[in-house]
Design goal:
Elements (H helix, E strand, L loop, with lengths): L19 E4 H11 L4 E4 L6 H7 L6 E4 L3 H15 L3 E5 L3 H4 L2 H9 L4 E7 L15 H5 L5 E5 L5 H13 L5 E7 H5 L1 E4 L18 H13 L3 E5 L1 H5 L3 H11 L3 E3 L14 E3 L7 H9 L2 E5 L5 H4 L10 E6 L13 E4 L2 H18 L5 H13 L14 H12 L4 E4 L3 H9 L8 E2 L10 H11 L5 E6 H7 L2 H7 L5 E6 L4 H10 L21 H7 L3 E5 L5 H10 L5 E6 L33
Parallel strand pairs: 2-3, 2-4, 4-5, 5-7, 6-7, 9-10, 9-12, 10-11, 12-13, 13-14, 15-16, 15-17, 17-18, 18-20, 19-20
Antiparallel strand pairs: 1-8
Length: 599
């Protein structure tokens, strides 16, 4: 993500003219135009109505009317994560604003540049429990980079310019701007660019040179190094620089759930995804390493397993633009605060110099890693209940669609299978809710991605549970000509919870059956539901129907497509490291009842 110290776009100066007088609402619109915003997602209500009156006349900003504010937030996330631009979501006060909270929290966890604009009751009514009054600034303080309350029209330009700068620089994230109704209705001179005063906000971009040299020296001296690549590499736009560094060094790379696509899956240096459901070579490469070069990753518990037993022999070089992440979970031998792209460029040069004096030798390490690849290839077994294999379906979606598409997933088993069995070759092609694990993310995120990338194929790979949380946005897609493809991996249950109940609760499947695809009842019938929303809707129950359905979806671009794939409810995500256990406990497949006990 850009870390320019003066990122706010400026309008052409007209020194001889007096500032134009605008309402606060007009100032919101004009500020967004100056910031280069072209698409917004929202839903009007009383406290934001003055701005919507202005927005109606805009010729440069496209407004997508969603059916739920959470959909607006996730669509803005998908827009941002697939394009690198800021995503904008708009809501009214009270419940409109609180409906954005889940998406704001999601963006905060996954470092997504999001601008949330909410209306607020009249400033004279604040604190009186007025109709639809909620302290949304207070509510969102823990889940935003910053939250701003605006009560005067003259403060609108600076608030939005500051929000843009905070959201898009340093570690990206969400910023909320709450604007009272009287601030929207009253008028003031519009001054652009405004004076931005952000005391204490100085993101470090350029790393300390001595720290980079120390990292390079550890890299040439190591025998079992691993590049641990996180989503920060994608956010910083450093994928090409990473490829150059990796090619020069020749050490293995693992890409986290948030970093899928940061490094090509086809590259022989890529061991795959580490973590709870990571590939065995990726998981054990970290566990057995003597040096971890962490680039834009935060040592999340889903990657480390039991932190005290994670990579016990490894020294750690931790690169992150957010100093709060360094040393939070694992102490760093060489802490480096800086933008991933800048640090990778400097590290590439420093390694080249260090390698002239000390030539690294990773040959024995590669013998071990290649043996793990051969012994533990990523795969799956076909179900024996006569239903479809979810892994095979997702794999075929990726193979028939290709790496230029965008794939957005909900949360659960289908999310893990989509991360495992689709091959990602470029950044910003894989969208998911990694930190918050938000069910319902996939469909609206795909919608936002399609708005940002109209010429790319966009798939939402969803579960029958996730789909029912936000499927109303299919109406938004149909009405606004946003032809996404939705693959429902329908196992008629809350699959990941059911898997844990099978493994850790003696098969007591407590309240995880959804009755959406198995037996005589389908509630709802996803084909009828899709058709009611104006989509092409298909149900697939036989293996020989899978490819034809995917191809028909790819050929259909005049409306959204919904495919209801009826899959086995007994399919599980493997490999797996149980929560709270060491990564050394990774189990490749469930050949027998596991001996784990969840901690």
């Amino acid at each position: 993500m850009s870390t320019d110290s003066t990122p706010v776009p400026t309008a052409k100066a007209h020194a001889s003219k007096a500032p134009e007088v605008l309402t606060g609402s007009g100032a919101i619109l004009r500020s967004l135009e100056h910031l280069g915003v072209t698409d917004v997602f929202g839903l009007p209500g009383g406290a934001i109505m003055p701005f919507y009156d202005e927005l109606m006349a805009s010729t440069t900003i496209r407004h997508i009317l969603v059916r739920h504010e959470q959909g607006a937030g996730h669509a803005a996330e998908g827009y941002a994560s697939s394009s690198g631009k800021i995503g904008v979501a708009i809501a009214t006060s009270g419940p409109g604003a609180t409906n954005l909270v889940t998406a704001i929290a999601d963006a905060y966890m996954d470092s997504v540049p999001l601008l949330a604009i909410t209306g607020q009751v009249f400033s004279t009514s604040m604190g009186t429990d007025a109709f639809q009054e909620i302290d949304i600034v207070g509510i969102t303080m823990p889940i935003t980079k910053h939250s701003i309350l605006v009560t005067k029209p003259e403060d609108v330009p600076a608030a939005l310019a500051s929000a843009y700068q905070i959201a898009t620089t340093g570690r990206p994230g969400p910023v909320l701007v709450d604007i009272t109704k009287d601030a929207q209705q009253n008028s003031a001179p519009f001054i652009w660019p405004p004076k931005i005063d952000l005391p204490g906000y100085r993101p470090v971009v350029k790393a300390h040179g001595k720290q980079v040299l120390a990292a390079a020296q550890l890299l040439v001296e190591a025998e079992r190094p691993v590049f641990y690549v996180g989503g920060g590499v994608i956010r910083s736009g450093a994928s090409q620089e990473l490829l150059e560094l990796a090619t020069k060094v020749g050490a293995p790379i693992v890409t986290t759930l948030m970093a899928r696509g940061a490094f090509p899956d086809s590259n022989e240096l890529n061991l795959g995804m580490p973590g709870m459901h990571g590939a065995v070579p990726a998981v054990l490469s970290l566990q057995e390493s003597d040096l971890i070069i962490s680039l834009g990753a935060r040592f999340d518990d889903r990657v480390t397993g039991k932190p005290s037993e994670f990579a016990p022999l490894a020294k750690v070089v931790h690169v992150d633009i957010d100093p709060a992440e360094i040393g939070k979970i694992r102490a760093a031998d060489v802490p480096i605060v800086g933008d991933a792209k800048d640090v990778i460029i400097d590290l590439t040069a420093a390694f080249a110099d260090a390698a002239k004096k000390t030539k690294p030798d990773y040959s024995a390490w590669w013998v071990r890693l290649n043996s793990l690849r051969k012994q533990y290839p990523l795969g799956y077994t076909m179900p024996d209940d006569g239903l479809l294999s979810p892994q095979q379906i997702i794999q075929r979606i990726g193979e028939l669609t290709g790496p230029e598409a965008v794939y957005a997933a909900g949360v659960g088993q289908h999310q893990m299978w989509a991360a495992q069995f689709i091959k990602y070759e470029r950044p910003n092609s894989w969208l998911n809710s990694g930190g918050a694990g938000t069910m319902g993310y996939g469909l609206p995120a795909a919608m936002g991605a399609k708005v940002a990338n109209p010429d790319r194929v966009v798939w939402a790979i969803d579960g029958d549970g996730c789909f029912q949380m936000t499927n109303q946005e299919l109406a938004t897609c149909t009405i606004n000509d946003i032809p996404i493809k939705v693959a429902i991996i329908n196992n008629s249950s809350l699959g990941m919870v059911r898997q844990w109940q099978t493994l850790f609760y003696d098969g007591r499947h407590s309240f995880t059956d959804l009755n959406t695809g198995h037996g005589t009842r389908m509630i709802p019938d996803f084909v009828k539901l899709g058709e009611a929303y104006g989509c092409l809707a298909i149900r697939v129950t036989k293996p020989e129907e899978v490819d034809a359905a995917i191809k028909l979806a790819l050929e259909t671009n005049d409306r959204p497509v919904v495919i209801d794939f009826i899959v086995s409810r007994d399919a599980m995500v493997w490999p797996m490291v149980p929560q709270g256990l060491s990564n050394s406990s990774v189990q490749y497949a469930r050949d027998h009842a596991p001996e784990w006990e969840e901690e």
